[in-house]
Amino acid sequence: MANTSEIKNGLCLNFNNDVWKVIEFLHVKPGKGPAFVRCKLKSLTDGKVVDNTWPSSHKIDIVRVERRKYQFLYKDDMGYHFMNTETYDQTTFEEKLLANPKLLKESAEVDILFDSQKDIPLTLEMPQYIIMEITYTEPGNKGNTSSSNVMKPATTETGAEIKVPLFINIGDKVKIDSATGSYSERVKG
Fold first, then answer.
1. What is the CATH number of domain 129-187?
2. What is the distance between the terminal CA atoms of the chain, rounded to a whole angstrom?
3. What is the model's pTM?
4. Average pLDDT of 30-53?
5. How far apart are alpha carbons 26 and 4 in whole angstroms?
6. Which of 7, 85, 155, 162 would bridge 136 by S-S if both were Cys, CB 3.0 to 4.6 A apart?
């Protein structure tokens, strides 16, 4: 058992008979009354997100996790299939448990967090940034510069739809933030 002072983003814990991951947290010390911790938690079994508040020094049950490298194989009716790059074991995740599944390319490497005591997969973490080629977007108008804040829709090689600046064209490679699914920058070369 630990207490709320150990809460941080990405921490996995047992709460209400489920395993939850801390997405956001805030230690609050009001002028009157005791301090407390406000958290946004995501269920690792059904993907539901809830807000919860604990008094400071409240006891929490931390889940020990182990990070393993997996490679994305394919998607079918059962879900998204991944293979361990060392042992060749395979595991499957439902689409609702993935943050931005449309950003997964075949053979992409991801980290899967396992409950180290029960040896069951908990959640999947994609790399922070993913490089994709734009397969469709409307052409930009001449004279638009990189300082323009106007965005237009674009489709990536995996079918994901994102917003990109006007100067991005078909065939350009862009860096996408995997957590938010948003454009980050154009990749040269």
1. 2.40.50.140
2. 51
3. 0.73
4. 90
5. 11
6. 155
